[in-house]
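Changelog-adjacent note: as of this version, every example in the card shows the full chain rather than a window. The one below runs 137 residues end to end.
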Amino acid sequence: MSDGNIYVTVTGARGAPGIGLNPSDLGAALFTAVTQAQAQAILGVLPAGIFPPMSGAQSLSAAGYYVFNGSSAATWTLPPVSGAAPRIQIKNRGSAALTVAAQGSDHLYTNASVTSIVLLPGQSANLLNDATLWDLI
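Full-length structure tokens:
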């Protein structure tokens, strides 16, 4: 189906839908369509591009939203500008400083070209890859 819902069929021990019961005994009221977001919340799955909180040193490789939750300082390295993800967002929800570093000879641009920035607890960065550097917007 392509109505924006995810449908789940439960199969019982006898192979019949509805945990081994006759489907006609269950009634339509027991089958509820859920949206993809609802299913992800129920299953504990994050939508594409949103990553679970992390701590320690990391090498980021994909576009998306990242959360630092460390209690000791760490460095996260951005992917290379060439062929990299178009946008990365980082939030420091930890209690320590997070250094966000460009890879190799790449640079980030704040009000000048730099090789890294530091996010203190509570700060965030929205980085856009403009194919020449990571632009802090």
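Structural remarks: DSSP finds two helices and twelve strands in the chain.
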